[in-house]
């Protein structure tokens, strides 16, 4: 055992002392995980009648309690031994008796700087005296750095979060205050690469009687400045600007976000028997019902509502509620025991100490060291990251094969339940080995039932995905109109990229009426297809379809619609096992298809051989596919059909011969779509990249099959059994959360009417059809895919309209 330990140390080049640190850090991380999980309640909105006694967990309320005198374990550090103490907070001096390669940034006003200095003192007390450290001030940015750990703890002065005339870290006592409540970029570029962000912004909004809002730029003659006395709306807009930045720019797999609630200040109270602010106070308040009346409940509601809204949009911000606990500590402010700046300040302090008492900031050591358990936890996590960064080397990710779909059509076993909240602990894998790629040979050593919860809430099938750009025009609601003058938009025989799976005329379909139907939206008209205009939209861009054979059918439709205006010597197609790319030289544009039928990594990702007896997926592994699509400018996703083929197996580990967990198709799809949604949320800027999700394409296997159907269904209320409502509910929940990052191409209802548009028996089959099936055409009719020209052309017309 001793030799093994020495070998481990030698392999990873880690000193024994560091191993001890790592062991302690890992133990701390486990405690942190348990703590955060237990307190990860989505309901954070403040209710007025519960502000004083807020409870997040019936067994342990971190924010309700008492201060206990403890001269054994506190203070955590000595004021005079902290190299970074500021005179503002050094009360004793003025007379009063983790993260290697990581960056922690506090953003806000002097109260957050107070917390920042507290963190520096706490971290500094743990660093050996021989460890080199530096503290630099560069404009608004304070930077503490430990070169040995390649880590930094920073503070950035931004009291209103958004841009203002008070943004000078040294000189900000200006009047009136002027804020550009829609502008945050000048600040955010200083912190956007942080690994941990701790924000605060409250006092600077609550303090002044009025402030000015600037529409435009500072110094611009066209700018308009407006005085406001009711600051709730500007505060809400500023927080919305901040939250939009967070949603658009924060990498949710990397960055941890915290927002510090308002701290109590004690400008005047009679709780101690005199209206003398905090001057002369020496004890905490022990009355647990005490609550400072200065707090703006409306502002607190706006703050917590903003954080809750971010969570609904897929961004988790930990709200650090220090308000109640700091209310008890009127004794912990500097009062007059700090450095003051001004003319004749010593005489004025002596004559009127109560007037000058600082009852806003906090002495150090003191309250900021204890503010909510999360702050010691942040410090622990900081050190955990230092240790883990030494140990963990990210493995290179192998490629994966992708392209075609001919899955079995077994009966669906989709099932519902309650909302799926999180994946099991097995998905946290820190293996040092390179991942073993799933392929057609992958097998589960054994299988157990998945223990997670799954399911969805209600949805109206008639409105699912029916988002439109113009409210009066619903592109996805309408009827099919026979039009043999304008349609088809191309001839089957003229498209060199036609698939034998979709070429119904070539394979003997006797009727061609399916080609002549035009979609007529309710209350408006579809823009007429123009191939050259579409190419102009695509100039210099990559359009990529990602999904299964239904999405490949839409991709082929797009090629057939576009190719006729490109000279044959100016176009090319490059097929391979992973990605098929059509290039138009004159437009420097590509139209591509990536085979990823289950979106996440699976054993069905082989381009040719994917008809397997069991489906195995890695629900938290999307990088192998996303690395191929992340540079595309326009992405069109679909995923549905392959989840309807029975249960799937979940593989959480990168190791071979691991036990799999079995889950229903719907449960597996929800896990996969959550991973996809996380990628979209963290990587997609709607101003630069357009993402579309194509809703489910209905099948017409039941209700008499689709064989020999020659006309669309005319009943506008028709809803077939080929579309699954539980799946639609789950998708609606996820897509709604992504908001403007994803546009929904809702082809479900309009395709439901087209029972006549499937290939049925008029296509190439990859396996010989026996005499028994030939005698019963309905038994082998393809009622899933679509003939071309046909229904997928309309899907692309809708895409053309939305682009």
Automatic annotation (TrEMBL):
Places the protein is found: Membrane
Gene Ontology cellular component terms for the protein in this record: Golgi apparatus; membrane
Residue stretches making up the Trichome birefringence-like N-terminal domain: 471-525
Pfam families: PC-Esterase, PMR5N
Record region (Disordered): 401-425
Keyword entries, A-Z: Membrane, Signal-anchor, Transmembrane, Transmembrane helix
GO MF terms, alphabetically ordered: O-acetyltransferase activity
Predominant location: membrane
Domain (Trichome birefringence-like C-terminal) ranges: 99-369, 527-801
Composition bias, Polar residues: 412-425
Biased composition, class Basic and acidic residues, residue ranges: 401-411
Source taxon at top rank: Eukaryota
Topology term for the membrane: Single-pass membrane protein
Family to which this protein belongs: Belongs to the PC-esterase family. TBL subfamily.
PANTHER family, alphabetized: PROTEIN TRICHOME BIREFRINGENCE-LIKE 35 (PTHR32285:SF202), PROTEIN TRICHOME BIREFRINGENCE-LIKE 9-RELATED (PTHR32285)
Name of this chain's protein: Trichome birefringence-like
Taxonomic classification: Eukaryota, Viridiplantae, Streptophyta, Embryophyta, Tracheophyta
